[in-house]
């Protein structure tokens, strides 16, 4: 939240101060900030009735499914134009003087939020990343250090287990989302030269081989991500190996108590947890963070040897609704409404004003939670380790956001059953293969991607795949 620091401490003042400064600059504007449910049902009700706020802060993936309804304003035209508040400084070298886009520090994460239709509906003010929080006092007593490789990590987990502690506190969401993406990247990264079928000239410089959902669907038809794909199988066997060292009940999302009472030695969580620990004056141990270590060829013969990639994403995500053009004739084409709306110009100006470094810093760095996504705004010292993590390359794909909710729901249920030994590997893979096939077919029906063009690219990349081992049997 931009108004309260994760439920701890007094209300935040930074955003209020920035809004006050904006209202002083534009006396004809009165900005009201409200906290509303972020559930999709609420959004649909408000948007369909025309009663939504001009700006909302929700996961942009919830926006994508409704962009065809005209409920949201595409922001590309504004992002590709100068930020007028930067232009006022009369320094053409400043980020934002040429394009508003240039003000965002983490370009891969920011531009990666483009919707499936290729348009951008999200302003990414700050970012979040995961890490392993660990009990440094315990590590020092045991004479152990954060691991550099996955093999060392397993040895560390065994060592802590022998001390009667829970080695790693980890929720089901972390297995289904974070572990899936990281393990996938570790095992498939070396294949990208032969399987990356779409190279968007704009995004490629930032996303570096990211596999879009339609690429995953095409590759699945070629036998990838099935029981016949040994890399895919190893994702789940490695995950099960890790499971034996984690919390007994992975269904619980809140593992804080186990960590702060020192029953658990490590906790895989997100950067906002930093504030929870930093603000705890009764904490009886020192703590620090490290990122998950890389796989080696001892972990898997398919390991790339590269460091684990970035899986973090946008934290505060601002979208502009059609309420912002309510001062125009609804019968006009949306392009005309975007140009003619004076209300929209003020709404966009507020977001541009918020992105100015001095204003972004006042809002984001009021307490240690998220990392600034604005160039020249440094993170707070407590978040510096997360800043170093974010210097790595971006993930190969984001499975959770690639397909529909049904895919994620089935994966969540069946993975939970598999990790609880309620179903064996073959049974899980059969379910997952069926689940992914249905999700891919649904995606192809909805988006109608150019599968013929991808087939041509696939054939052209055949020489790249010639030396790659253990590719699935291809039809």
Protein architecture, described:
The protein has two domains: 14-103 and 316-368, D-Maltodextrin-Binding Protein, domain 2, CATH 3.40.190; 130-311 and 396-465, D-Maltodextrin-Binding Protein, domain 2. The protein is built from 23 helices and ten strands. The protein has helices at residues 14-25, 40-49, 61-64, 76-79, 84-87, 107-111, 136-142, 150-161, 172-188, 192-195, 204-207, 213-221, 230-243, 256-260, 273-278, 334-340, 342-354, 357-364, 384-389, 405-419, 425-447, 451-460, 462-465, and strands at residues 55-57, 123-124, 126-128, 130-135, 166-169, 264-270, 287-290, 313-314, 317-320, 371-372. The chain has a four-stranded mixed sheet. A three-stranded antiparallel sheet has the order 1-9-2, with helices on one face. The chain is globular, with a radius of gyration of 23 Å.
């Amino acid at each position: 939240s931009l108004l309260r620091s994760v439920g701890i401490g007094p209300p935040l003042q930074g955003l209020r101060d920035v809004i006050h400064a904006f209202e002083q600059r534009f006396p004809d504007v009165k900005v009201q900030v409200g906290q509303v449910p972020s559930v999709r049902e609420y959004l649909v009700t408000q948007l369909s009735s025309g009663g939504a706020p001009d700006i909302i802060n929700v996961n942009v993936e919830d926006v994508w499914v409704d962009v065809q309804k005209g409920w949201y304003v595409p922001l590309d035209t504004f992002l590709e134009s100068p930020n007028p508040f930067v232009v006022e400084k009369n320094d053409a070298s400043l980020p934002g003087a040429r394009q508003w886009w240039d003000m965002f520090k983490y370009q891969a994460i920011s531009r990666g939020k483009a919707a499936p239709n290729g348009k951008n509906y999200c302003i990414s003010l700050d970012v979040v990343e995961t890490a392993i929080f660990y009990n440094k006092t315990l590590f020092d007593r045991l004479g152990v250090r954060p691991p550099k490789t996955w093999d060392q990590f397993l040895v560390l987990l065994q060592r802590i287990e022998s001390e009667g502690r829970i080695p790693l506190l980890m929720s089901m969401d972390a297995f289904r989302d974070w572990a899936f993406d990281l393990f996938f990247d570790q095992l498939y990264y070396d294949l990208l030269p032969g399987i990356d079928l779409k190279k968007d000239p704009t995004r490629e410089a930032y996303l570096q081989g990211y596999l879009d959902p339609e690429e995953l669907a095409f590759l699945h038809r070629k036998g990838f991500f099935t029981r016949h794909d040994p890399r895919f199988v190893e994702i789940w066997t490695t995950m099960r190996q890790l499971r034996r060292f984690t919390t007994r009940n992975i269904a619980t999302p809140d593992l804080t108590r186990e960590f702060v009472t020192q029953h658990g030695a490590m906790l895989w969580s997100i950067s906002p947890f930093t504030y929870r620990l930093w603000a705890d004056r009764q904490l009886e141990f020192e703590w620090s963070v490290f990122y998950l270590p890389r796989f080696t060829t001892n972990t898997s013969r398919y390991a790339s040897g590269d460091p684990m990639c970035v899986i973090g994403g946008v934290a505060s995500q601002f979208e502009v609704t059609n309420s912002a053009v309510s001062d125009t004739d609804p019968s006009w084409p949306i392009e005309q409404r975007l140009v003619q709306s004076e209300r929209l110009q003020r709404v966009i100006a507020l977001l541009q004003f918020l992105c100015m470094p001095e204003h972004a810093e006042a809002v984001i760095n009021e307490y240690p939670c998220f990392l600034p996504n604005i160039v020249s705004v440094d993170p707070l010292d407590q978040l510096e380790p997360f800043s170093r993590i974010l210097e790595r390359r971006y993930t190969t794909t984001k499975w959770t956001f690639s397909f529909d909710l049904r895919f994620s729901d089935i994966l969540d249920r069946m993975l939970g059953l598999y990790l609880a030994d309620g179903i064996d590997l073959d049974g899980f893979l059969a379910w997952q293969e069926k689940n992914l096939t249905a999700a891919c077919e649904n995606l192809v029906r909805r988006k109608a991607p150019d599968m013929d063009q991808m087939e041509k690219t696939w054939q052209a990349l055949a020489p790249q795949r010639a030396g790659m081992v253990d590719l699935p049997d291809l039809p």
